[in-house]
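INFO batch 0412 | record 1 of 1 | parsing
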Amino acid sequence: MVALLMNHKLIGPSENSTQRAFTIEDGVITSLDINLVDWKLHCENPELLISEIEDYGLNGNWSDCWSDEEVGDLRLELALAECKEFYEYCLSERSFHYVDGPAINNLLLNLLRDYSVANCYYFIWKGAQQASDYKIRMQVSSRHAANYMSGASLRWADKARSEGWEIKSFSRNYNLPRSMLSYVLYDVMLKIGEKGFTEPLSNLNASPTK
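INFO prediction complete | emitting tokens
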């Protein structure tokens, strides 16, 4: 996000930034540490812009150009990131090897088609539990068990769909704190709070409150 804002020349490093934030070679800045840089807005009235953004968020004065599709895409992206984070956490707890790729991404999108993030946590946890049992029982490698986990998670979800199970919703894991993006999107913009975590995306109104 910072790179995107910089590329559009909306923000830039402030002259008040510490020199430790920059790598300089032959008198030219070659790279910077975004965690150390002080930023400034490239606009005529930064205070007014910040005030308008806060007003949009707090009072729901959203422009008509903010469409249901755009909000829905953002919500799906956030839900996918939360599921992926929990998936990686379940793998790391068991010292399973994780390889990021389209297979895991497609699995999580499949789960999110019908279920909330909290429900998806349940399927991921069940898949991890079965993978652990499979590893011990069959004496397979951690990589093999990790591959088994994705299939096990999907099998649980497919069985739940076909048999109409009422799925247990997991709570947020205290090792994976809620992101600021989640707070802004669901508490400030959509004003539905933790329903963004506990309710399927298809059940929620996508539009910011007018």
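INFO post-check: Residues 68-93 form the longest helix (26 residues).
INFO record closed
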